[in-house]
Amino acid sequence: MAFLRSIVTAKTTAIAAVIPASAFAISSISSSSSSSSSSSSSSSHFERLSKNLKFASNPNLRLSFAKNIEKSSPPSALHMDAPSSNHLTSVETEFMVDMSCQGCVKAVKSKLQTVEGVKNVDVDLDNQVVRVLGSSPVKILTEALEQTGRKARLIGQGVPDDFLISAAVAEFKGPDIFGVVRLAQVNMELTRIEANFSGLTPGKHAWSINEFGDLTKGAASTGKLYSPPLGDLGTLEVDEKGESFYSGAKEKLRVADLIGRAIAVYATEDKSDPGLKAAVIARSAGVGENYKKLCTCDGTTIWEATNKL
C-alpha cells in the first residue's frame, strides 16, 4: 500500500490516500486544502487523472462525496506520523475453524461482529478459514469463536502481500513459566505485540527483546537489549494468579529484524536480575500461508507450522 510507505500530512494528500480512483476529481476538497505549493501540485495531479472518469462528469455525486469526506475522520493509518506506543492498527488474523454449513458461517460472523475492534469478517467455508480484519487481540477473538461451540486454531496474521516476513512468535514452554508472544507487522513503522503469560509471581516484571537467541544459560545468555530503546518492552503487570496479558504496539520495530533474537522476562522491574526465562523469536505464518490442516491432538498448538516456516 502506497500510503503505508509514505504518509503525507497535507490534507489533500491524506484524503487522496483513501479516495477511490473514481473520485480523484473532487475539486472542492482540493480547494479547502493547504495553499502550499506541494498541495497545489497534488491537486492538479488528481484533476488531470480524473478527466476520463465518469464520476467527474456528475457534479451532484462529487458534491455529495466531498461532504461525506469532510464529515468523516481519516482512518487511523493516516495518523502514523507519530503513533502512540499503545495505538493498535488493523491487521488480518486467520483462524482454522470447524464449520460444516451456512448456519455455522452465520453464527461465527454474528459473534465476531460484536467484538470491539473488529472491522470485517470473511468466512471461507470450503477451507474452514475465518479471516478477521481489525485491532482485536488474538486472545479475545479466540475466546469469541470458542463461545460459538467451535474449535478455533490461529493459523496466520499480518498485512496481506505487504511484507516478506510479517509475523513472528516466541513461545515460553515452562516448566514454571508458560507464555506466547506474537508480533505482527502493521506497516514499516509499526509492529503489534500481544503476549500471554502464566506462572509469574504477582507484581511487575520487566521484559525485553535481547540481541541473541542463545538459551544455553537461559535469559542470561541472550545478550544486551536489542537496539535500545526499541527492544525495551516496558513492564508486565502480573495478577494474583500469576497471569499477565499484554496488547500494544511499538514504533520503528520491524519483525524481519527480530527473527533469531530472544524475548526475556525478568523477576524485577529494573532488570537487576539475570532474567527468569527467555524464548527465541521465530518466523510464523503470515496471511494466506497456512491452510493445511494438522493434527492438534495435544490441544496446545498455538501457531500451526507449514513447509514455508
Quick rundown:
The chain has 309 residues and is of the alpha+beta class.
Our Rg estimate from Cα atoms comes to 23 Å
The total beta strand count reads 14
What percent of residues are in strands?
25-35%
What's the total helix number?
Answer: 7
Instruction: Tell me which oligomeric state these chains represent.
Output: single chain
Q: What's the SSE pattern?
A: HHHHHEHEEHEEEEEEEEEEE
State the share of residues found in helices, binned by percent: 10-25%
Can you give the mean pLDDT?
74
Main sheet specs: 5 strands, antiparallel
Q: How many angstroms does the end-to-end distance come to? A: 25 Å
Label the structural class.
Answer: alpha+beta
- What coarse outline follows from CA principal-axis ratios? globular
- Strand arrangement in the largest pleated sheet: 11-7-6-5-14
Low-pLDDT segments, ≥5 res: 1-59, 61-87, 293-309
